[in-house]
Amino acid sequence: MPLRNFLIVALLSFVAACGKSKSSKTDTAAVVTNIGRPRVDTVPATPMTFNLTSTAFEANGSMPTKYTCEGANISPPLTWAGAPPAITKSFALIVEDPDAPDPAKPTRVVSHWVAYNIPAATTSLAESASKKGMPAGSAQGLNESKKVGYMGPCPPIGRHRYFFKVFALNKVLEGLNNPSKADLEKAIQPWIVGTAELIGTYQKTKK
After folding, report:
1. What's the whole-model pTM score?
2. For each successive 10 residues of the chain (207 residues), what is the average pLDDT?
3. Per-residue DSSP letters for 106-164?
4. Which of 65, 98, 71 has its CA nearest to residue 164?
5. Spatial CA neighbour of 199 closest among 78, 105, 90
6. Contact (CB, 8 A) for 201 and 119
7. Which end of the chain has the least Cβ crowding within 10 Å, N or C?
8. Residue among 64, 87, 75 at smallest CA distance from 201
9. What does the alpha-carbon distance between residue 169 and residue 146 come to, in Å, rounded to a whole number?
């Protein structure tokens, strides 16, 4: 091979080797960088469901009078389990009646209890927690009567359903001050990672 051609071949081989070496270093750096990045928790497209129960009444069962306007008007005990542990940062609670004023012709949803920033380690609320004290760090919002805390069932007509809803959130909420149900629903929407629901019913014994 003539010397001139030999030099050209040698030069081309050197350039190719340098390019491959540079690419290899870049790829390795990219892998190391990706491994070092912290995991970012995301909100699932469809929040998982978990269990919500009460020792005071069964699902779709009648609520005892003591938890209504005809009794002590205190919040019932609630227990939940199965919320996603790795990404739950807090819980929110909404209790509402979609059958107002008449179950045969409902026209509005009445809010009975709003609470939020319930610590992620919490798995239950004791009877009368709304009055006697929520878990440390929790806060309550306004019910339909524009008062903070629990407002027991007091249906004017027929038997109404009361939906107890617990939401697992991957965030501790900030900037809320005595929120209404609508305010809380808007605030939690981007952060819901799990939901649980329990329905109780009640019909007034006195007219």
Report:
1. 0.79
2. 49 48 38 34 80 98 98 98 96 98 97 98 98 97 98 97 98 97 98 98 90
3. --EEEEEEEEEEEETT--EE-TTHHHH-PPTT-EE-B-TTS-BS------SSS-EEEEE
4. 98
5. 78
6. no
7. C
8. 64
9. 25
